[in-house]
């Protein structure tokens, strides 16, 4: 397969797709029902393949890898550690597989790789001077523990009836509706948290840790400062307000925990023989490259509404330059 049929490479060897990043057709006027249906149900759309996959993972985890509600009525280290081990295993399988395939075995070399360079193994920007070790450190020392803590507390509260729980047998439609909206809600929540941590003081002390990864890999996904993890995984608190099923809690957190691995691969597509999977990582790659664009991932047109959208084109580059110049001028006036 030749990636030059799908994009172009610059002098440095960085590859970029011809296809521009597009937002979902959800809020277009006039409404285009066929385009919306295609976006929801078509391949490479909202459900297929990724969100359906993470939804099925959540159901499987609830059925076969979650303690009973009776057990979870009492806070105890045994079942909490079990959930920690299962979350650590899940991210090790997903991000670990992507890293092994793309960065250690280099199965597709630089094919569809945005940045021609490989992650740094000698940079002061990272703990141990090694990007990958640094990323895994933050993932396992803070990311998975906080993901687990939120999950344990939410499931414990549900098991005790401290928060309202949805009966999936009595309300199957509501169950499906909440499942459907979880990835969208996650995006809205992430957008708000993300804008907040780009506020200079929070950026400097918190979010800059994640942004040290200007050339991200799968383990960069939830390589974040502990304060960012605290905000990031708070997405699950919505289920304390909206009566939900434990599967919803698990899905929300599985989505928050595992999708960044896919979104930070640094590759536009994963190629395995004739199978080609889009990672949908381009918008967020541009965020890591330019910092002030694409705070969300594109299921909701939030960046368009707030003027921070970058579709990968030279025109978007120019618009970004103008925005930056205006911002610098305002800052200078204030000083
Ligand atoms: Zn990122
Ligand atoms: Zn950011």
Structure overview:
The protein is built from twelve helices and four strands; from the N terminus they run E-E-H-H-H-H-H-H-H-H-H-E-E-H-H-H. It has 335 residues and is mainly alpha-helical. It has one domain (19-302). The strands form two sheets. The chain has a two-stranded antiparallel sheet. Strands 3-4 form a two-stranded antiparallel sheet.
What's the main sheet like? 2 strands, antiparallel
Strand order of the largest sheet: 1-2
Ligands in the structure?
A: zinc ion
Secondary structure class reads mainly alpha
Shape descriptor reads globular
Counting structural domains, the number is 1
Q: Which regions are unreliable across 5 or more consecutive residues at pLDDT < 50? A: none
Question: SSE order in H/E notation?
Answer: EEHHHHHHHHHEEHHH
Measured by DSSP, the beta-strand proportion falls in: under 5%
Total helices: the number is 12
Radius of gyration: 20 Å
Provide tags for this entry.
globular, mainly alpha, two-stranded antiparallel sheet, 335 residues, 12 helices, binds zinc ion, two-stranded antiparallel ribbon, 4% strand
Entry summary:
The chain is mostly helical. Helix content is 54%, strand content 4%.
List the helices and strands and how they pair.
Layout: E1 7-9, E2 15-17, H1 33-41, H2 50-64, H3 77-104, H4 131-159, H5 172-197, H6 200-211, H7 226-232, H8 238-241, H9 246-263, E3 269-272, E4 275-278, H10 282-290, H11 302-305, H12 314-334
Antiparallel strand pairs: 1-2, 3-4
Helix pairs in contact: 2-9, 3-4, 3-9, 4-9, 5-9
The structure holds zinc ion (2 copies).
């Amino acid at each position: 397969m030749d990636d030059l049929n799908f994009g172009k490479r610059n002098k440095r060897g960085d590859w970029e797709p011809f296809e521009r990043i597009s937002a979902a057709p959800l809020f277009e006027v006039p409404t285009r029902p066929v385009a919306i249906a295609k976006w929801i149900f078509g391949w490479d759309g909202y459900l297929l393949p990724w969100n359906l996959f993470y939804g099925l993972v959540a159901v499987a985890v609830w059925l076969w890898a979650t303690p009973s509600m009776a057990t979870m009525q009492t806070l105890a280290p045994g079942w909490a550690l079990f959930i920690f081990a299962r979350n650590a295993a899940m991210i090790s399988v997903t991000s670990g597989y992507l890293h092994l395939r793309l960065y250690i075995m280099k199965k597709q070399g630089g094919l569809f790789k945005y940045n021609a360079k490989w992650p740094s193994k000698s940079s002061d920007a990272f703990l141990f001077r090694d990007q990958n070790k640094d990323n895994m450190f933050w993932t396992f020392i803070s990311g998975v523990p906080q993901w687990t803590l939120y999950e344990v507390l939410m499931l414990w509260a549900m098991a005790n009836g401290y928060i309202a729980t949805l009966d999936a047998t009595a309300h199957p439609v509501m169950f499906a509706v909440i499942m459907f909206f979880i990835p969208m809600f996650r995006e809205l929540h992430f957008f708000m948290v993300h804008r907040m941590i780009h506020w200079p003081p929070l950026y400097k002390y918190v979010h800059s840790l994640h942004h040290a990864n200007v050339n991200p890999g799968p383990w960069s996904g939830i390589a974040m400062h502990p304060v960012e993890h605290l905000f990031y995984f708070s997405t699950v608190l919505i289920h304390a307000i909206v009566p939900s099923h434990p599967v919803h809690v698990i899905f929300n957190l599985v989505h928050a925990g595992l999708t960044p691995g896919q979104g930070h691969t640094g590759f536009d597509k994963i190629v395995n023989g004739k199978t080609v999977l889009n990672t949908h990582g381009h918008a967020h790659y541009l965020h890591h490259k330019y910092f002030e664009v694409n705070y969300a991932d594109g299921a909701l047109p939030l960046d368009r509404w707030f003027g921070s959208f970058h579709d990968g084109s030279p025109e978007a580059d120019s618009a970004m330059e103008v925005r930056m110049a205006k911002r610098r001028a305002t800052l200078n006036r204030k000083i």
